[in-house]
Amino acid sequence: MTINASGWRPETPVVGNSTAPTFTGNKGLMLEEALIFEIGSAETTGVEVAPPVEAPSRLGTLGRAKPIGLPGLAEPEAVRHYTRLSRQNYAIDLGLFPLGSCTMKHNPRLNEKMARLPGFADVHPLAPVDTVQGALEVIHQLAHWLVTLTGMHSVAMSPKAGAHGELCGILAIRAALEARGEGHRKTILVPESAHGTNPATAAFAGYAVEDIPATAEGRVDLAALTARLGPDVAGVMITNPNTCGLFERDMRAISDAVHAAGGLVYCDGANFNAIVGRVRPGDLGIDAMHINLHKTFSTPHGGGGPGSGPVVFSEALSPYAPLPFVEQTSDGFRLVEEETADEHHDHSFGRMVAFQGQMGMFTRALTYILSHGADGLRQVAEDAVLNANYVLRSLDSTLDAPFGASGPCMHEALFSDSNLAEGFSTIDVAKGLIDEGYHPMTMYFPLVVHGAMLVEPTETESKAALDQFIGALRSVAERAKAGDVALKSAPHFAPRSRLDETLAARKPVLVWKDPELAVAAE
Amino acid sequence: MRYLPLTQSDREAMLAVIGAASIDELFVDVPGVAQLDGPIHGLPLHASELAVERHMTALARKNVAAGDGPFFLGCGAYKHHVPASVDHLIQRGEFLTAYTPYQPEIAQGTLQMLFEFQTQVARLLGTDVANASMYDGSTACWEAIVMARRITKRGKALLSSGLHPHYVSVAKTMAKFTGDVLDTSVPTLTAESDIDQLIASIDGDTSCVVVQYPDILGRIADLSALADACHAKKALLIAVVTEPVALGAIKSPGEMDADIVVGEGQSIGVGLQFGGPYVGLFGCKEKYVRQMPGRLCGETLDADGRRGFVLTLSTREQHIRREKATSNICTNSGLCALAFSIHMTLLGEAGLRALAETNHAGASAAADRLAQVPGVELVTPAFFNEFTIKLPQEARPVVRTLAERGILAGVSLGRLYPGEADLANGLVVAVTETTTTEDVEALAVALQEVLA
């Protein structure tokens, strides 16, 4: 059998979790749910379709002869299936979700209601422009807010997610450099504490990637960065506030040094929530920055997407922004697509995605922004930073806070596993927190800290909620420091105990196969 | 501030614990030049729920919704009826407000759903495996081209003239930066697709051929010979499906031996939403699974031997591999994938086939009716629920005129291919189960008046 990172084995006895099995496998309200392929049938359906009109078939020879293999459920069964599945998920609606760098704030339901207005939800992307003036106005209004809040010059709205926004920014940088005749700049510098998306994005855009080291206090090493700049460097990708939860104090100096060396500055705006409405990144010399609408502006994470990642640009980069975009004219809004590219837009690096981007997220984000207003957004940043510092200072005597002396943290508090008992690691604390009723913090990231635990409470947690979470994390940490072996087999009270990820990767089972057919095939 | 729980006394108590005299002290590391001393000027202050609702509702009213009148737009986004229970279920907080399932013990709901989704998609596309979804069809299409380059170690892709022009644009944009060579062309208003030309063009440098099925004009064509021709030259066949409902009525690309099948899943469960968020579908043959982009969910066991699900093969991904990852993508389109999967579960085999049959019959009847309008000619003899007609004049102004009459008549090829005079008279018309006989009649009558 496999051993996981902590040395725990499947045959390790589970402490305090032995109960007689039930007939159903359920445990009270903890309900097991089979797969649709095990409970549905090809004849069952939960929809009623109007019968076809009389008309000749025009499918030629391509009519489907073989069954597809799609099980159906009647509506009551389907509702129950998905409701049961949902109850095996942790979610913001259930409790604090302290994932560092993910900004798991409350998702207001007014956003959902507005996004579902037929005038937004039931509009075709290729409808004549005169019939979608309201949709274009939403994009225009949101764009105005994003540009004003960041102090930048323009914004590209179409990127579909944060990483897609990074790609947009880096492509604009490359297009600008090539237009200057500096296509020979082939290297992007990325701090070693960056999200993995940063180096992956740079590589996907055709750049070589080099790491910039961090200082002992958790910030970019300005001297090392400056020393590496030169005629082959296209630019840097800096996350600010950074993934250690700190503000890069030298941001202006970094930008100036990069610009002086002929490069451009990309800022990963994943952590914009810490500064929204209070700090303008545009005043610090950056050229492009993506904004995660699903973080700072509360559009739902949805179990992993859809996100939305608009990119704000400096004046220098604006001409290279992607198509399409919205323009206000004397007779309403127009959509600038390939077809209308004129001399003002012929520097655009092109189209990144079909249609206009994540409209459903734009309506949600604009709803959220209008609810808070300029004053409320500023309060968001202040409360987010206050909550994170409260967590940091309440726990820094229990857990090691490697950058606790580097000044206040911003939106997230970083701890390491360095003072846990021998053989205990971050994963044991994380799985212990699950039994306490919390989703764990971000684990083992950033890589610059051993066994990193990155806690981002966000502004939507009350003091009482924070106090309870702090108590729970302190309790679990004390157990890990004392070497409580029960933690090694945690979680004990989740729908599943620790899952064997090695087995999943070694023998990938990615689709369901009928076991009876599989036996017959053998 | 209705979304902010802290009170002023909470804030003061917390500052005392932190040992800071004021909030400003927590921002001490931010250079003064970038700090604002109050709410940003020129932007409105916070507003009540009612006031925001009024503002947004007024904006929504400025749009013509697809359900407001006769509606015939397709070309990569389709109006279908979504059962009420789909939207109810995706709004459950446990789905809506969960994160990526990085902690599988408390994310089995999302993970099992993704495993079911992957299986549904693979069966629908006719592939061995499928991933947990992509941003949308256009980005999935580009990722497939990149994947083919990785597998074949060749850098030239042949794109069918029937591929959605936005998908072509996305690929062209990216290829400018990656150095991939793309062979592209625009379609002609003919009955036949360009499969024969594609077969003739495959050579030893070809990494893949990308073909859309049904294509941008609605045409359907057998891909088997193209697949054989690709494989004879050790190239891959990538098929793109922008209308997955079609696969309830016609053979899947996987059945015709396509190596990678990508698509836009918006038709099932998601809704139009002015172009996004949508859900990209991505399936392939088993032997290529480790070259796939995006997230994958896999089955495993927990410590007590019970079946469970985890994200797997993540060594392909950016958070592990950084600059060596198969893609920079770090998300999927989870909630849209859920909507797709719920809708597909409600349909089931029987429902999907019935839905496809209704779509096809309605489109076939509409094609016959519109062909009766003087001067209108049906271009596409074989299609599913979308077909192209040729008008005796440019279609774009006709579409605008009909829109003023409350009829959204279809997508003019002039909108999709500006500057291509040969296509300017083409109009692509989509018919789904939401289209009534009265809608078709209204379009036919209005079109006859406008063309007269």
Automatic annotation (TrEMBL), chain A:
GO terms for cellular component: cytosol; glycine cleavage complex. Its EC number is 1.4.4.2. SUPFAM superfamilies: PLP-dependent transferases. GO terms for biological process: glycine decarboxylation via glycine cleavage system. Keywords: Oxidoreductase, Pyridoxal phosphate. It is an enzyme of class 1 (oxidoreductase). Pfam families: Aminotran_5, GcvP2_C. PANTHER family: GLYCINE DEHYDROGENASE (DECARBOXYLATING), MITOCHONDRIAL (PTHR11773:SF1), GLYCINE DEHYDROGENASE, DECARBOXYLATING (PTHR11773). This is glycine dehydrogenase (aminomethyl-transferring). The gene is gcvPB.
From TrEMBL, chain B:
Gene3D superfamilies: Aspartate Aminotransferase, domain 1, Type I PLP-dependent aspartate aminotransferase-like (Major domain). Its EC number is 1.4.4.2. SUPFAM superfamilies: PLP-dependent transferases. GO terms for molecular function: glycine dehydrogenase (decarboxylating) activity. It comes from the Bacteria. InterPro entries: GcvPA, GDC-P_N, PyrdxlP-dep_Trfase, PyrdxlP-dep_Trfase_major, PyrdxlP-dep_Trfase_small. This is Probable glycine dehydrogenase (decarboxylating) subunit 1. Belongs to the GcvP family. N-terminal subunit subfamily. It comes from Sphingomonas alpina. NCBIfam families: PRK00451.1 (NF001696). Keywords: Oxidoreductase. Residues 1-444 form the Glycine cleavage system P-protein N-terminal domain. The glycine cleavage system catalyzes the degradation of glycine. The P protein binds the alpha-amino group of glycine through its pyridoxal phosphate cofactor; CO(2) is released and the remaining methylamine moiety is then transferred to the lipoamide cofactor of the H protein. The gene is gcvPA. HAMAP family: GcvPA (MF_00712). It catalyses: N(6)-[(R)-lipoyl]-L-lysyl-[glycine-cleavage complex H protein] + glycine + H(+) = N(6)-[(R)-S(8)-aminomethyldihydrolipoyl]-L-lysyl-[glycine-cleavage complex H protein] + CO2. GO terms for biological process: glycine decarboxylation via glycine cleavage system; nucleoside metabolic process. The glycine cleavage system is composed of four proteins: P, T, L and H. In this organism, the P 'protein' is a heterodimer of two subunits.
